[in-house]
Amino acid sequence: MTRILLVDDNPDDVELTLRALRRSGIGCDITVARDGVEALALLHPPGGAPAPQPDLVLLDLKLPRVDGLEVLARVRTDVRTRCLPVVVLTSSLEEQDVSRAYGLGANSYIRKPVDFTAFLDTVRQLGSYWLALNVPAPQGRSP
Amino acid sequence: METPEHQPAADVELQDLQLMCADMLDSLASRWRFRTQAGRLGSHRMTEAAELVRRLERAASMLRDEPAAARADLTPLIASEERFRALVDGVTDYAIFMLDREGRVASWNAGAERIKGYRAEEILGQPVSRFYLEEDASSGKAERELTIAAREGRYTEEGWRVRKDGTRFWANVVLTAIRDSEGRLIGFAKVTRDLSEQRRAAEYLKASEERFKLLVESLKDYAVFMLDPQGIVVSWNRGAERIKGYRAEEIIGTSFSRFYTEQDRANGKPLRALNEALTRGKFEEEMLRVRKDGQTFWAHVTLTPLRAPDGTLLGFAKVTRDVTERRMADEALREFARDLERRVEARTAELREANAELEAFAYSVSHDLRAPLRAIDGFSQALLDDYGDRLDAGGLRLLTRVRAGAQRMARLIDDMLMLSRLGRAHLRRDPLDVTALARRIAADLERAEPGRTLRFDIADGLRADADAGLLEIALRNLLGNAVKFTRTRQFAHIAVGETERDGRRAFFVRDDGVGFDMAYAARLARPFQRLHHEDEFEGTGIGLATVRRVVQRHGGELWFEGAPERGATFTFTLAPPTRPGEDRP
Known about the structure:
heterodimer; A: alpha/beta; 5-stranded parallel sheet; 5 helices; B: 4-stranded antiparallel sheet; 52% helix
C-alpha cells in the first residue's frame, strides 16, 4: 500500500487535498503532519531507529514552529530520507521560495490552484506520476 | 708776411682773429658740452672739436705776445673754421647761432631753422626776444638772461620758447658771452635744444607711474609690495597694511621673513622661496602667514623677480592674498556636500526599508488571502459533488457563482501583486530583439488557441533598449488582448511594428478585432477598468494598466486608438524624449 505524508497546517487545505486524493482514485495510506516538528518526528524518529518511509511527501512551505524549507533541508541531510520524493505543494509562487526549495533538493514544486477542479486534476497527475510512473529509490539501502 | 702798409690792416685782422677765436672757442666749448649731454655727435667729430678748441686756446693765449706765431697757427684753423661752420651748420638738432652785443641775431644754422622755423634772411638782425613767449618778452626776460650771461659768462635754463608759427616748445638753452682779449663783450653764442619730445616722454612716464601707484594703492584685498634682492621690504600698499597689519613705516627696511611663521623661518623657507622665484621665474604657494598681532592666516603668495633690461636683479615683486575666507567657504561647502550625502544615504536606506516592507506585505497578503479562497472554491465544489443531486438548477447555479467569485478574486490578487511588483522592480536596460520576443509570444498564443486561425504580422529588425522581463509582460498583455478581442473574427489579423509618434520612434500592436469606443478610452488603462462585460470577454482589467506601468517605468508613453468593430492600435515608446537627432523608441 502506497503511503503519502501530507505536511500542511491549514485544516481546509488538508481536507480538500484528502478529498482530491480520494477522488483521484489513487489507493493510498495518508498520514497528516500539521507542522514541521510533527513531520520530522515521523520521518526521523529519535533514537536513530529506521522508520517506515512514505512513498511521497507533499510539503507545504508556510508552517508554524518549523517551516517547510527547514523540513526539506533536514530530510535531505539525513541518510534515511535523502532520496525520498518531496513535492512542494504551496500557494506561494514567489521566486525566492521556488529557488530555495530547489536549492535544498525538492523534486518538484507545485502551486496550489484556487480552482478546485484544477486542484483535483493536479492531484490526480501528481499521484499518477509519483506513485505509479516514478521508480523510487530502493529503500533500506542508501548510495 | 709782415708788410708795413698792412700794419693797420694787421691790427684789424688781429682784432678779427681775436673775435673769431673767442667766437669759435665758446661756441665749440658750449657745443661740445652739449654734445656730451646729448651724445649726438660721432666720436670723430668730438675729437675734431676738442682738437680745434685746444689749438684755438693756444692761439688765443699766443695772440697778445706772439701774434705772428699765433697767426701762423690760426691760419690753418681759419680753414678749419670753415669746416667748423659747416659742422655747426650741419647740426640740425641744435639751434646754434650768434647774437651781437645788443642781443640781435648775428648768425643762423640749419638746426635753428628747423627748431625755430625762421629762415636766416628772416631773422638776422632781429632781437632775441622774438623767440620768447609774449609775457616773457614783455617782462624783459631775454634782456635779463643776456645780462646774467654777460656777468657770469654763461646762462642755462629750461623754459618755453616760441617758434615762427607761434607754437611753443620746451627748450634747453645755453647762452655764452663772447669777449675779446681785453675782455670786452663782443656778443653771445646761443645753443637751443627742442626738448618737446623728451618732455612728453617724461610726462607720459610720470603719468604712467602715477596711475600704477594709484592702482597698487587702491588694491585693498591684495598686498602688493617690493623686496630688494635680499628680501628687504622696500615698498608697501594699503592692501598690505590691511592684510598683514603693519604700517609702511613699521615694515619698510625689514626683512620679509617676518611674515613667515616661526617654524617656517627656522626651516629656511623664506630664502628657499626667493631662490625658487629666481630659478623658476615665479614662486607661488598657499600657506600660513603671520600678521603683526601674531595671528596666523591662510595666504596665497606670489613672488616674482624683477630684472633690469641688462638682466641685473633689481628685487622681487610680492603679491599676497588673504584666502582664509575662501578656504573656510570651501570647507563649509565640503561639509555641506558631505552632510547632503549622508542625508541622501539615510533617505535611500529608509526607502529601501519601506520597499522591503511593502514587498513582504504584498507577499504575505497574497499568500494568506489565497488559502480562504481555496477553501471557498473547494468546499463549494465538494458541496456540488456530494449534494449536487439534492439541489435544483437554481441552487447549482448559485454554487457555481460562489466558485466563480472565489476564482476571480484569486486572479485579482495575482494581478494586483504583479502590478505592485512592477512598480518597484529594478529596471535594467539591455539591447533587446523585440521581433524575436514578439514572435515567441505569438507562437505561445497560437499554441494555446489551436482551434483558431491567427495571423501575426511582426516586422523584422525591431530593437529596443529595455528591461527584458518587463517588456515581455507588456507584450504578452498586448498580444494576449489582441488575440482575445479578435475572437469574434474568423481570421484574426495582428500586426506588430514600428512607427513615428510625436517625432519619436514608437512600437505598435494592432488588431482588427472588436475595438472599443474612443469616448471611453480614458478609462482603458486604469487598473480594473473595463470597457467590455465579463460575459463578453473575460479579464480583470489589469492588462492595460500593466502595460502602461511598464511603459512608464521606461520613461515612455502609451497611446491607444480604436473604433467599435474596427480593431484597436496600441502605440508606445520605451524611453523619455531625447535631444533631437538622438531618438530611440
